[in-house]
Amino acid sequence: MNRSLLDLLRKGGYILYARHGEATVGIDQPNLNFWNCFTQRNLSELGRRQAVYYGQILRNLRIPISYPIIASPFCRTIETAQLAFGSANVQIDPFLFEIYRLDENLSSAEQKRILDSLDSRLEIKPPQGSNKIIIAHSFPKGISLGQIPNMGTVIVKPLGEGHGYEIIDKLSLSDLAKL
User: Fold this and answer.
1) 35-40 long-range CB contacts below 8 Å, 24 or more apart?
2) Domain span at residue 51?
3) CATH classification at residue 91
4) What is the spatial distance between Cα 178 and Cα 174, in angstroms, rounded to a whole number?
5) Separation between Cα atoms, residue 155 and residue 17, nearest integer Å
6) Distance CA 121, CA 124 (A)
7) What is the distance between the alpha carbons of residues 166 and 109, in angstroms, rounded to a whole number?
8) In 3D, which of 70, 72, 71, 75 has the Cα closest to residue 29?
9) Closest CA to 158 of 18, 14, 11
């Protein structure tokens, strides 16, 4: 993996949008309830290890992170963020549930509303000298940040509100470990 990407991340100014760890336990129920993990798919043991490893990699690489870590309201995303960065460092963003909904049969207007809202969030620069981390979901193929493997990370360079963003790289967990 290229050294210059690591140097850029150490300077800060990026959003690391990561998919949660492997979730194979249970299924998302039609009566999904964010307060009841039994109504959702949850992290497997591998997924828990991936989450811990993710946090260790970022600390070992000395990549500066701004807190709180932003997580989707699903148990699997919250647990991923807590295992990687500590329970006290996680903030839930209900909007990130909308990313999950992109897999549903939405109207083009509803899909556009969700993607426009996401885009406006990805334009916001993190605090000087740090990187923002979002733990959420993959996207359907060809939409927004695209398909993301378990604990994969999309490196996003926000260009400022109203100016868009650039996708710098997409890294699997093993790619990140090789930085």
Assistant:
1) 37/75, 40/74, 40/75, 40/76
2) 3-177
3) 3.40.50.1240
4) 6
5) 7
6) 6
7) 24
8) 75
9) 14
The pTM assigned to this predicted structure is: 0.96
Task: Name residue 141's amino acid.
Answer: K
d(CA 20, CA 72): 9
Residue 42: beta bridge partners? 25
**DSSP string spanning 25-77?**
ES---TT--TT-GGGS-EE-HHHHHHHHHHHHHHHHTT--EEEEEEE-SSHHH
Distances (CA, A) of 25 to 48, 54, 72, 82: 12, 20, 18, 18
**Contacts of residue 141, Cβ cutoff 8 Å, sequence gap at least 6:** 147
Domain total for the chain?
Answer: 1
| Residue 170 neighbours by CB under 8 Å, 6+ apart | 145, 146, 148, 152, 153, 154, 155
Does residue 103 have a pLDDT over 70? yes
Over residues 140-161, the pLDDT tens digits come to 999 999 999 999 999 999 999 9
